[in-house]
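Bench notes, afternoon.
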Amino acid sequence: MQAAGIQQTASIYQDLFLVSGSYDLGWLESGRNNQSEGAPYSVMFGLAGGPLDTVASFTGPEVSTAVWTERLIPGLFAPADGIYRLQFQATGSQDRTTLLDDVSLTSVPPSQVIPEPGTGMVLAVGLGSLVAFLRRKRRSSRTGAAIRPQPV
């Protein structure tokens, strides 16, 4: 996206083809230099053509000069390959403008993705079962109770 301004209930969006994975979203924001604050807005994300989820909401920049503030939303997740919509939606009712620039969506390498809690539980149960099996096997070999095949 190129630099753009949103105000009142206006929105800007971009449809992007994404492969399944996690992404970090970053951008710069600033207010118009003749206003005390920028327009409040929400960042929305989801499959293009479907309902969008509000990922975060911001009150807009509080400065009335051309100072740019960096924003970052880590870990946007695209569950499957497809066309996704990234949208900035103004949510104010007054004539305030928030300027947006340098919007970037960066793929997060899988090694940096934090697994879901369920994944950790499956790993813990699996390791616990392996330890229990090895302990049971070690005890049975010490007592000589191991079953050895008998020749026929």
